[in-house]
Structures are given as C-alpha cells and as structure tokens.
Amino acid sequence: MGVDVCWDPATEQPPARQAAFRSMTAVTAGDKAAWLALFAGDAVVEDPIGPSMFDEEGKGHHGQDGISAFWDKTIANVERFRFTIRDSHAAGDEVANVGTITTYLPGGYRVDTDGVFVYRVREDGLIVSMRAFWETERAMATARKAEDTA
C-alpha cells in the first residue's frame, strides 16, 4: 500500500501538509488508531461537506467519537485507497490538496473521487478541521470494475 503524492514528504513541509500526508498514510495502512491520533479532541471532519450518505444532517463528525464513527461507516468498508494529489496549496495553518482518491471496494469495484481536501491544524500540528469538497453523484458515476490490483 502506498500513497502517491506530488510533494516529497522527506523535505520540510508546512505543518498542515505534513498532517494531511500522515492522514493519507494512516488511511492507506488501515490504521484507525494512528489516524484518530492525528485529530484534536474537538476536531471536525466534513467529508463531503454538507448533507450526504455519510452525514445526513450535513453538520460534520465532531470529536474523537464522531470521527471514529465516521471511520467505521466509511473508511473501514474500503479494501484499499490510493491518493493522487495533483496540487497542494499551503497557507497559514491550512492546506488545500487537489486530487483524486481512488477507493477499491468489495466485489472488485473502484470509484474515483475528485476533490479539494482541506486540512487545518493547530500549533501542535493536530488536525482541528478536515473538509472535503467533492460531489457524490460525480464520484459514483466513476464506479466500475477495478482493472488494476496495484
């Protein structure tokens, strides 16, 4: 399992970009504990922003319990993830990553989710906000049998 990114995580990077990379790495590894450890106790995850099949009220997943439940409802049900970040814009305590998340689902299917993924960190580097701008219908239109297994 790997993370395809367009920046070199071995070089010095802004804290929010580092947190985003660690988040993607934990997700691809299926390491829920490592992923949750990246978030501040009062953090909010909005993925996607607004009402969705993952968040009917569109208010986000709040705190460790809410974020843990989000993992169980979404990330835990994916066999494999591939992150392809085409661009990354860091400013202040935030980073906006532009790219595609490819999810490999049970039954041999894959879905490509194009979006903008914004992380905000506090001074100690913990994530206080993760907001994902993507469209459910657009992502679901890409659902198809997976051709690659890498």
Give an overview of the whole structure.
By secondary structure, this protein is of the alpha+beta class. It has four helices and seven strands. It has helices at residues 15-29, 32-36, 63-73, 136-140; strands at residues 39-46, 61-62, 80-91, 94-105, 109-121, 127-133, 144-145. Strands 1, 2, 3, 4, 5, 6 and 7 form a seven-stranded mixed β-sheet that branches. The model is unreliable at 1-6 (pLDDT under 50).
Distance separating the two termini = 8 Å
Shape: globular
How is the biggest beta sheet arranged?
A: 7 strands, mixed
Order of helices and strands: HHEEHEEEEHE
β-sheet strand percentage: 35-45%
Rg over C-alpha atoms, rounded to the nearest angstrom: 15 Å
Helix content percent band: 10-25%
The counted number of beta strands is 7
Structural class: alpha+beta
Segments where pLDDT lies below 50 for 5+ residues?
Answer: 1-6
Number of helices: 4
What can be said about this structure in brief?
The chain is α+β, with helices and mostly antiparallel strands and 150 residues long. The protein contains 4 helices and 7 strands.
